[in-house]
Specification:
The chain has nine helices and eleven strands. The chain is of the alpha/beta class and 315 residues long. Helix 3 crosses helix 5 (157-168).
Length: 315
């Protein structure tokens, strides 16, 4: 079996890919530019990728096309499934491997924003505390999360874990699900009633831009918004304007419509504000989660060549 890894750098230098060697001949590329993709995957049996985009232009014809694309992620919006079907290429993702990691970072961002921890840590780190003459500092003012309403948009495995933590803190929890149940509410209700909103829904045609000017206008003044889903789930320009106006009191985000986001991206202008915490799409990547992801991809490959349909997203 011939295996190629297209963007190993996104999996972290601390994660050994040696377990792949037991499956066949492995070629590892740290990064792959769009014009290099076709040549690097031609003649390979399996392509492993994380953020690389694959479409009609990248897929070789006939026998040169790979048999399987393994996405080192749960989301697969970077893969043109119709093009893969036309070329007879299977696609498998990895599910549930990063739920604990993303939930952990989500809660960390919320707590950092509501407690202003970066401000307090900077006060000590720059020597101000040592020269203040006061045993403590209590500005900027922070508040308890107990008693607040925490809205969760997308209550799958990640959102459900966040909900558990929010309840443990004493929050009232509102969940908005793609497939409503008896306990969930609609997005408008979350926007109107939540003090904290965290977003965990996949990017689909239905969820693209689901949080825009209309939804932001319904939110409470000073709401805390944290997006851990996909950048395009929100109208990023509208979010940035709401941060500037103060409508959104604090913003946390780990995902962007362009990654890394360029200088003309709406968030570039607000990236260093005290009430904004932007992380480089790292929340999925606790070491344990990445090791789990690699193990799952190996199981996906074994299942595929055994004629099984494990984690297939193209059928």
């Amino acid at each position: 079996m011939k295996i190629v890894v297209l963007d190993a750098a996104t999996l972290g230098s601390d994660l050994s890919l040696a377990p792949l060697d037991a499956l066949g001949e492995v070629t590892v590329w740290e990064n792959t530019a769009p014009h290099e993709i076709r040549g690097r995957i031609e003649g390979k049996d399996v392509v492993i990728l994380n953020k690389i985009k694959i479409g009609e232009e990248q897929l070789p014809d006939g026998e040169g096309a790979p048999k399987l694309i393994c996405v080192a992620a749960t989301g697969f919006d970077n893969i043109d499934l119709d093009a893969c079907r036309r070329h007879g290429v299977g696609v498998a993702n990895v599910r549930g491997y990063s739920s604990n990691s993303v939930a952990q970072v989500t809660v960390g961002l919320v707590l950092d924003l509501i407690c202003h921890l970066p401000d307090y840590c900077s006060f000590v780190a720059d020597g101000s505390y040592s020269h203040s003459g006061c045993a403590n500092r209590l500005t900027p003012t922070y508040h308890e999360v107990a008693g607040l309403t925490w809205g969760i948009v997308g209550a799958g495995k990640i959102g459900s874990r966040v909900a558990d933590v929010a309840r443990a803190f004493g929050c009232r929890v509102l969940t908005c699900r793609r497939h409503p149940d008896g306990e969930s509410v609609d997005l408008d209700t979350v926007c109107r009633e939540a003090d904290i909103i965290t977003v965990h829904t996949p990017l689909t045609p239905e969820t693209r831009g689901m949080i825009g000017k209309r939804e932001i206008a319904m939110m409470k003044d000073g709401v805390i918004l944290v997006n851990m889903a996909r950048g395009a789930v929100t109208d990023e320009a509208a979010v940035a304007e709401a941060v500037k106006s103060g409508k959104i009191g604090a913003l946390g985000c780990d995902v962007y419509s362009m990654e890394p986001f360029p200088e003309n991206h709406p968030y570039y202008a607000i990236r260093d504000r005290e009430n904004v915490l932007l992380t480089p799409h790292m929340s999925w990547g606790a070491y344990e989660a990445r090791a789990r992801c690699l193990s799952e991809m190996i199981l996906n490959m074994k299942a595929f060549f055994a004629g099984e349909e494990r984690n297939r997203v193209d059928i």
